[in-house]
Specification:
alpha/beta, 3 helices, two-stranded antiparallel sheet, globular, 15% helix
């Protein structure tokens, strides 16, 4: 499990198989607009101790460059995250394939690497996401302030849009039950993201960065 520091907020889409429990938790309907989601999180952040949120967790279905949160987010919506500038330190996308890259440079979906990078730059914070399918037990409620570890390659994007490889976990999806794939966006291709093809072993992933990268501290704030 991953334990998050206070204050934190959990966004649970009503279709998600599992729910996060945080200092502030919100169950989001499938008709909730992007603007309302982002504006309410900003309001909660301003009212939190210190006037910001250390962590915001998205618990939802996903696919490459897509989050099934409310009416949904894809690459065309990343500028909206500017509303979180200075209010959120780290975003966790606990969803399938969000950082996966199928079609480099795609304007809406299929370039999860650019999607996560753009969200990080717009919100001026860190973004953590996996390139792989995630597994979860339907109806599960996670312990307070905690997340399950991720399956597959986990990437963390900094406020400048740069990317760190956090960890790589081998998963046999033939015997697991992926819970978060959005079929409407199609099935993922085999293999790693094109951007990471040269690093083709778990050992290479571990060498690329420590399990908790040493980020430069943000002004007036202490990094986890």
């Amino acid at each position: 499990m991953i334990t998050l520091e206070l204050p934190h907020m959990g966004l649970n889409d009503s279709r998600a198989p599992a729910s996060a429990r945080m200092w502030n938790t919100w169950k989001i309907s499938q008709t909730e607009t992007r603007e309302h989601i982002l504006d309410w999180v900003a309001t909660v952040a301003r009212g939190a101790p210190g006037g910001w949120l250390k962590h915001v967790v998205f618990s939802c279905h996903g696919n490459s460059s897509y989050l099934q949160m409310g009416v949904g987010f894809d690459r065309t919506h990343t500028p909206l995250f500017k509303r979180w500038g200075g209010l959120v330190d780290r975003i966790w996308f606990r969803a399938c394939l969000v950082a996966h890259l199928d079609t480099p440079g795609s304007a809406a979906a299929r370039d999860g690497n650019v999607f996560c990078s753009e969200v990080a730059r717009a919100a001026q914070c860190y973004v953590v996401a996996s390139t792989e399918l995630q597994t979860e037990v339907s109806g599960r409620v996670l312990p307070y302030g905690q997340l399950d570890t991720f399956e597959g390659l986990v990437l963390s994007y900094g406020p400048a849009g740069d990317v760190y490889v956090v960890a790589s976990v081998s998963v046999d999806h033939t015997s697991a039950s992926p819970a978060c794939l959005v079929p409407a966006l199609g099935t993922r291709t085999n293999g790693l993201n094109n951007i990471l093809r040269a690093r083709n072993s778990p050992e290479a992933y571990w060498q690329c960065g420590p399990t908790r990268p040493s980020y430069p501290p943000r002004p007036g704030r202490k990094c986890a």
